[in-house]
Amino acid sequence: MLSPEEKHEIDEELKHLPYKESAAIDALKIVQNHRGWVTDEALDDVGEYLDMSPDALDSIATFYNLIFRKPVGEHVIRICDSVSCYLTGYENLRDAITKKLGIKLGGTTEDNKFTFLPIQCLGTCDHAPAMMIDDELYRDLTPEKLDEIFAQYK
Amino acid sequence: MPTIYIDDNPYEVKEGKNLLDAVLSLGEDLPYFCWHPDLGSVGACRQCAVIQFQDEEDEQGRLVMACMTPASEGTRISIQHPDASQFRENVIEWLMVNHPHDCPVCDEGGECHLQDMTVMSGHNYRDFRFKKRTHRNQDLGPFINHEMNRCIACYRCVRYYRDYAGGGDLQAFAAHDHVYFGRHEDGVLESEFSGNLVEVCPTGVFTDKTLKRHYTRKWDLQSAPSICNHCGLGCNTIAGERYGTLRRILNRYNSSVNGSFLCDRGRFGYEFVNDDARILTPVMKNVETRQFEEVSEDDAVAKIAELTRDKNSVIGIGSPRASLESNFALRTLVGSNRYSSGMSNAETELVNLSRQILNDGPAHSASLKDVEKSDAVLVLGEDLTNTAPMMALAVRQAVRNQPVEKAKQAGIPEWNDNAVRELIQDEKGPLYLATPTNTKLDDVATKTYNAAPQDLARFGFAVAQFLAEESPKVIGLDEDVKSMAKSAADALKNAKRPLVISGTSLLNKSLIQSAANVAWSLCANGKKAEIALTVPEANSMGMSFLEGQGIESAFERAASDDIKTAIILENDLTRRVDSKAWNQFLKNVENIVVIDHLENETTAAADILLPAGTFADSDGTLINNEGRAQRFFQAFEDDSAVQESWRWLQGVLDLGKDTDVSDWYSLDNVFSAMTKSVDTFKGDIVVAPDAKFRINDQKIPRSPYRYSGRTAMKANVDIHVHKPPQDPDSPLSFSMEGYSGKQPSGLTSFFWSPGWNSVQSTNKYKNEVGGELRGGDPGIRLIEPKRNASPKYFTEVPEPFSPREGEWLSIPLHHIFGSEELSAKSFGLSKRAPEPYVALNPSSAEKLGLQMESRVSVKLDGTEHTLPITLHENLPDGVIGLPVGLPDFNGIPLPNWSKISGATE
What does the buried/exposed string (b/e) look like for A48-66 if buried means 16 or more CB atoms within 10 Å of the residue's CB? Predict the structure, then answer.
């Protein structure tokens, strides 16, 4: 069942859209905001609300890498592996994070604090390499800066 | 007609085509994946690349996708250009990166479009040395096998399943090389047309699960052109056999009938042919033990001849699932006035009425193609998905015609599928559905009206009244029904090709009459209106041509003293009459002779039982709902005593000496004897090439030239090579020997063309992509309307339905899986059939104090059934729906009044 808040937020989106289906991506993001990730149950709930089959909705959900169909940790780290970052030290950075958190790309820490994912370009090539934790962007990174950054998420 | 230049040679092509379509229509080879003749172009796979030149001077050229480029006047392309062929080879190489090397164990092998295209493009060696991505496969139910690792992501499956067939539960998931085509969780594919995925998928992702149970390669099948016998539409099929068992049904292209597709009942309903309950030898009941005992064929025939010596003591009950020839032979044996169609009186009356309407009226009897081309549709009473499935698929296409016309006006050609869909979005042309409850077409309907059958008829009469003053008035119609009738009438009147659909499924005469009134009133308005009337079974319309009486009339006759023997032809009468009438009939008649192919309650009552051929092991002619006579041919012959029913009857007639049947040694002769002696057939009718037909003095083979093991396949019997069976009934040989070119239309046992082993080779058999087969589509229409006739409108408008206190009108609800006798006995299909139930609307259920899980007892026609309920939101008050053809309700005449009460258990 969608919560009243979820329904309300989806209704807000629907106001701007010609077809119910057009709200699919936003609705999935809203549900993800509330629940952390999109469960099978959430697909059924949203599908029912937007008159879409869970299949159609899942097709959208699985296409976008910012919509999670598996549980993620409290914070999601997205490290850019696109050209500029690759050239300016993405690999060192990746390995440093792996070492620090004990998880590889795609993994979640045991305490469920962090999930570590790759992303294609954060739009900040002039300050490569870059990563994003939740909605916060970190630029001009070096492995040395990581301790300080992660300290904020204790 | 534009002229295009392919590698500097000029060709005339049809206006409005794309280059790929044009090139294939010219008979040239050009590889492709995502394009499909019925799905149009999306330009996704990049396989059909050619070099296009600006003009004669241009030597450079540029790479274009043939499927996305219009074949306009002066277009110059090169298919052979090294850049183009290199590009095509590379595309295949990329596609093959993740494709497994599993052709030897893949069911698609030998008829795989991917194999063909790989060879055609010249990508002969596989250099990819790395890990391939793998997927988990899903269980998609009893029909379709899923093997996602083979996927090349052409998107044809979802474009067919969702866009074309309207299915909701097959999707593309994820992105780049993880793309996955399936359901969001394991489960049965819900669409009634899922089987076409087998032919739509260019490789082995979706394959026929029923074939897998008894797998045979395409080249090892002995096949014959056949006609589906599971509903009245007469879709063209190919029946393939090996080692005496029927292995599968494939679509056989016929642009006027089923085009490229089949429904799942037609494709997967064949396995009854291999059933253990097949009757294989003649048997006679021992008078004392009442057990069946084997008898020789001659003795059985002689005994029947003895019983039928006095014609006045015999009645014959034919069957709408048997061929014209078999029914005619029975009619000849017993005389036309003692011959019954084998349909109930009610059904006989409705089918006769349908033929009369199609024959007399100015409205044209619509083929499935006509249905697909119509641009405004009114459906009266029929739940098409369940009563005439392929017509539902055609209607689904028809609702696109008006919006597509808009796209054309915006300069977007119809073949540009994505652009057209983008423009028209959810827009649909007019479709008005008037049915007793919700149907699977509701999602594309402009408006639906659910009511009791006679109210639906009143709605139909009201539509006609808006179109023609002279048609009868409907008094006391609700305002909203009236306004829907008005808008339906307007939509039909404003359309270019309006179509009215009705049929026999609700067994309501007024409905069909109201449909005729609508169609005729449209004609009176100067419209070229079409009318499509569905009939219950494969040869129901044929029965109307043979003018037999209904079963009840035949039973009455049997009650008179002089009838001693009844011959029942391929008909389980216990499905059609109630048990009281049946038992009385058994008492009235001393000797029962049954000719049929599967054991059933009727064959159990026989004194003499003869084995008949099914559609797969006999030949014959059927007439479909449209009035099209079509021939099905025998796919195989085994060593049993099974033969066509008419051959058994010929034997009896021959001994009887009353009729000269000495020339009834072949199907052609029986057919021509029929057209000569039955008045409803006029003149010489050629349904298919006759048995003497040859090309270069050669017969047409039933098997491809690579057919293996013919000389060894009987080695378990003896060491000698068996002579192939002879076939006096058709120009087809039971062999791979014979004319090796393309078989003529109507005699196509398999589609094959050099380099084209898959079903895509059908393009090589057509005049043009999407067009008729070369030499014309097979079959012949026996009903053509009198375009200038102005028949009198039907005037009997029924009274409105009024619910009764304490009684319920039970109406028949049909099921694509389960309602038809033969297909329901097939392994895969039986798993999809519903359990018997009683359908009623929620408020009625509440009044009766019933819950979701409740069981009710239904008292009907002197019988009582205890069944679970199913809630149908839209079923009218006072009406319950009962499933047709399921065991509990066999032989119970519907519609009928019944009493229901909560079951006490």
Answer: ebbebbbbbbbbbbbbeee
| All structural domains of chain A with their residue ranges | 4-63, 75-151
Question: Which residue, chain included where needed, has tokens 């559905």?
Answer: B433
Contact residues for B453 (Cβ-Cβ < 8 A; gap 6+): B381, B436, B506, B508, B510, B511, B801, B811, B895
Interface confidence, given as ipTM, is: 0.87
| Domains parsed from chain B with CATH numbers | 3-96 (3.10.20.740), 348-536 (3.40.228.10), 808-902 (2.40.40.20)
- Whether A118 has its CB under 8 Å from any CB of chain B: the answer is no
User: CB–CB of A53 and B175 under 8 A?
Assistant: no
Residue percentage of chain B with pLDDT more than 70: 100
Average pLDDT rounded to a whole number, residues B302-319 = 95
Rounded Cα distance between A56 and A58, Å, is 6
- The structure tokens 């089959």 sit at A53
Contacts of B175 in chain A (CB under 8 A): 62-63, 65
Identify the pLDDT of residue B860: 85
Whether the Cβ atoms of residue B202 and residue B222 lie closer than 8 Å to each other:
no
How close does chain A come to B426, measured CA to CA in Å? 9
Residue of B nearest to A22 (CA): B425
Mean pLDDT of A99-114: 94
pLDDT exceeds cutoff 80 at B438: yes
Q: Which residue has the tokens 């025998």?
A: B634
Tell me, what's the pLDDT at B903?
64
Q: Which residues of B touch A118 (CB under 8 A)?
A: none
Pick the CATH number of A75-151 from 3.40.50.150, 3.40.50.720, 3.40.30.10, 3.40.50.300: 3.40.30.10
Q: What is the 3-state secondary structure (H, E, C) of B25-66?
A: HCCCCCCCCCCECCCEECCCCCCCEEEEECCCCCCCCEEEEH
Task: State the nearest Cα–Cα gap between A122 and chain B, in angstroms.
Answer: 19
Do A53 and B168 count as a contact with CB atoms less than 8 A apart?
yes
User: CA dist B141 to B145, B196, B209, B373, B690, Å?
Assistant: 8, 14, 9, 33, 42
CA distance B629 to B295: 36
| Percent of chain A topping pLDDT 70 | 100
Which of A19, A40, A58 lies at the smallest CB-CB distance from B173?
A: A58
